[in-house]
Structure formats: structure tokens, C-alpha cells
Amino acid sequence: MPAQKTVKVFDLQGKPVDKIALPDVFTTPIRPDIIKRAVLALQSRRLQPQGRDPMAGKRTSAESRGTGLGIARIPRIKDGGGRAAFAPGTVGGRQPHPPKVEKNIMRRIPKKEARLALLSAIAATASKDAVAARGHCVGDIPEIPLIVTDSIASVSKTSELEVALTSLGVLSDVCRVKESRKIRAGKGKRRGRKMKQAVGPLIVVAEDKGICAAAGNLPGVDVVTVDALNVELLAPGAQPGRLTLWSSGAVELLAKLHNGGQAEQ
Asked: Rounded to an integer, what distance in angstroms lies between the CA atom of residue 214 and that of residue 160?
């Protein structure tokens, strides 16, 4: 069995203070195909079944006048001045193929594949090439994966968190998210939202002691505990390699939750 890789643990000032052995989960092969399936399956759970009233668009007196009148045979309202109704394409008419509630819109994935996708997405956070391929700013980051002391979970002010991220070389990625909002805001209308923005770093802690409130005002920054990790957080848009800060306690708990081993291939 190959020896476990040892990485540095940094404090909030960006200085190495300790070393920690990475769990075997970080050596899981990166499988973008399975990660994409797991993300789509997770997103499908948020979809709401849709249906239409079977009589929608049909509550009208419209009938076709037949042929020989020099007009189209489309149904027209009686005593309505010849206004068309009922047929698809008319004002207030029925839909040609309305959605049905019995349609299966949820995608399912086997448990073993879902677990492999999660472990693979975790392993991608330890690959500098995968993180850089997502567009994250990794030039100032001392080491990937970036392991920080557990004191980061107790940061409760946004200003303190900004100072810590600056020392760790991560704030440049947060600035990239801010700039993406400015650039994309002037590119026309966005369906269902005012703007689009890039995805920033993810902070994984063993226990939230105030950092969620501190990171709430930083665009693109997400905070999650180890037991709430999912594939969509680690691989937004089904693209693995999100820039992730791990607390040392989160790494130790990660090894316990996944038994320090890889998923079955």
C-alpha cells in the first residue's frame, strides 16, 4: 500500500504550523462522467411535477364553419365576429402537447455510483490542474489541497474572514467573482435572475462556530460542514475541481465518515 500523502496545515496568517496525512479518499480516481450523473440526479429532485387542466382552452363555443366560405377551417367563436379559439396557436386556445404530472422527471443513480461521485469530487479538490481548469485563481495559494486550522470555523466577522483569506491567497478568487458580476450585468437580460456570477471558494469545516455568518456577505463563497457535503457543492455545473479550504478537523472527520477508503470501482 502506498504511503499517505502529507500536506501542511496553515493558520489564519498563512503560515504553516503543522502537517497532516491526507485520507485515502483524496486518491480516488476523478470520474467527470459519474460526477455529472450525480449532479443531474441531485438537481432533478428540485423539479416540481407540472400538469394542465384537461379542459384548459376548451371551454368555448368555437366550432369550425367548414369549407366553401373562403376562410380557414379553424374553430371560431359563435357570434364573436369570427375570432378563432380552441385550436393550438389561437389566443386562449389549448396546448398541443401539455405537460403531464405522471411524467417521470426524477433521475436516479445507484448508491455506489453516488458515493463514488462524491469521493471523486472530493479528490478533484486536491488536484491543482482540476482547480485551475475551473478558472479559479490559484497563483497565490501556498498548497492544494489547502488545509487550515480549526480556528477558521470560529471567525464570525466578514472583515476578519477577508483578512484570513488574503493571507491564505484565496481573496483573489473572491475578487474574480465580484468582477464577473460587473462584466455579465451589462450583457442583456437574464432569465429568472438579475445577473450571473462565477463560483467562488468552498470552505469545509467540522462544525459551524460562526463562519457561516461571516461568509454570507462574500459573493461566491459557500460554507458547509463535512456531514452535509454533496456533489453539487464540490462540482458546481457538474465540473469537478472547486477551490476548497478544508479545516484540519474536517479532514479528520472526513476519514472517519468514509472509512479512509475508496469507493468500489
From this structure: 8
Confirm if 154 and 210 have CB atoms less than 8 A apart.
yes
Coil, strand, or helix at residue 21?
A: strand
CA-closest candidate to residue 97, choices 60, 61, 63, 50: 50
167-192 pLDDT tens trace: 999 999 999 998 887 655 555 556 77
Residues pairing with 8 in the sheet? 19
What are the grid coordinates assigned to 252, written together? Answer: 479528520
CB 244 within 8 A of CB 254: no
What letter does residue 54 receive in the DSSP assignment?
A: T
In this structure, what C-alpha cell is assigned to residue 121?
A: 469530487
Torsion, Cα of 129, 130, 133, 135 (10° steps): -110
What are the extents of the domains in the chain? 6-47+108-187+197-257, 58-104
Indicate the range of 10-19, 148-157, 178-187 predicted with least confidence: 178-187
Separation CA 204–CA 146 (nearest Å): 11
| Per-residue model confidence as pLDDT tens digits over 75-117 | 999 887 889 999 999 999 999 999 999 999 999 999 999 999 9
Class of 6-47+108-187+197-257 per CATH?
alpha beta
